[in-house]
Amino acid sequence: MEKILIIDDDKLTLKVIDDILQRLGYQTFNAESGEAGLKLIPSIKPDLVITDFQMPGMDGIGVLSEIITMNTGIPVIMLTGYGDVALTIKSIQAGAFDYLEKPIDPLQLKNAVHLAIHSVKISRGLNRVKFESSSRETMLDNNVLIGKTPAMKEIFKNIGRISMNKVNVLIKGESGTGKELIARLIHSSGVTSDQPMVTINCSALSESLLESEFFGHLKGSHPGALHDKQGKFELAGEGSIFLDEISELSLNTQIKLLRVIQEQKFERVGGDKTIPMRARIITATNKNLEALVREGKFREELYLRLKVFTIDLPPLRERKDDIRDLVVFFLFKLNRRFNRNVVKIGDGVIDLLKSQRWTGNVRELENTILQAIVMSKNDVLEIDNIILNPTPSETAVVVPEFFRFRTIAELEKYHIQRILDETKWNKLEASRILDITRPTLNAKIEKYSLRRP
Ligand SMILES: Nc1ncnc2c1ncn2[C@@H]1O[C@H](COP(=O)(O)OP(=O)(O)OP(=O)(O)O)[C@@H](O)[C@H]1O
Ligand SMILES: [Mg+2]
Fold this sequence. Notes:
single chain, 453 residues, alpha/beta, Rossmann fold, Helicase, Ruva Protein, domain 3, 5-stranded parallel beta sheet, 20 helices, 14% strand, binds adenosine-5'-triphosphate, binds magnesium ion
């Protein structure tokens, strides 16, 4: 049974949370101050700590930083006042796993607790992954998956499920939905996260170069092969190979890849030494692969081998309730990167963002927030600084049902009748509005047999 330590100076809140968690089958422990809570940790060894932010004596951030110093990897959920974005950002900045706003919503509490306990494995995995670039902080920022909507929670669970066995995974989703991020999380939460993850963008290279890139080559095997070269499949070892934009593979390369997957071995181009293939293959696409299979552009056998497990990332417009959390997260991440301190969200900003279609999905939202941060003159994310991309569907006039499938004559008749009615049959005014002469207007009235009501 998982153990949860709850710290809050307010007895009523303590009791409410305690009751909910006990009913859910967790073993709970209570403390009425930060200091008291911290003392309990070594003996209880909780799987999760939930702490209030504002307490006399040591506050939530104090508790959080002590727990982080202990280096136990225990996730912390912070309780904050409703709508207090600054505290929320501060908490997450300080390393809280999540935050919950008071008054506590039982369902949210349940989800957050479940997610926190479930994700520890994922985040522990993360810390061990070796990434080529930059600091630990940037690495963490780029590997946080935000999402509390049902669809995203399902994805969290699936990442957990896949982590146990090394099945191949196909990630589907529109551009900017987070496919690459998910691929990294699958790798880093998996059993071989200490092994490398290599990425190949299938649209970036020509067919012959791609084969070298996949399997490596021997010196002289083709004009560009000046030295022996290890391919990405070899470099991946027992880790993961991420094939991005898999739909762009030529049919020829598809056949070669299929053979390697079937035989679990390959050779460098121009070589005859057999190299075993043990890596997990993660693929991503923003195309409809089934359709490509039907059209004969993608090999069905390969498709079946790649989609042993499929993750369908919904577009952002289908999970708008994640927008607020994403904005908070991007503020936190981008403030740090650009050394800014925008910690408040202006009135109407979230509603405005929720009203958009986001054809570029999470990436477009992130860029919009970045632009707004750059333009902001104080610590508020102002509505005026939010510049939205018009998308065709928004700028296009909505066509009322009446106008669909009508002839021009029908529309002309309808329009002239309306203008005449609105001007109370003042023909001078009507002809001015319609920008036609009076004789023309008279002719049209005749032609369409328009009548005064
Ligand atoms: N749920 C999320 N939480 C936090 N950040 C996210 C989330 N989804 C996407 N991002 C961020 O949005 C950006 C785009 O994500 P990513 O590159 O993974 O998308 P993609 O689906 O691979 O896009 P494309 O099809 O254009 O290659 C990245 O900066 C990523 O970290
Ligand atoms: Mg991508």
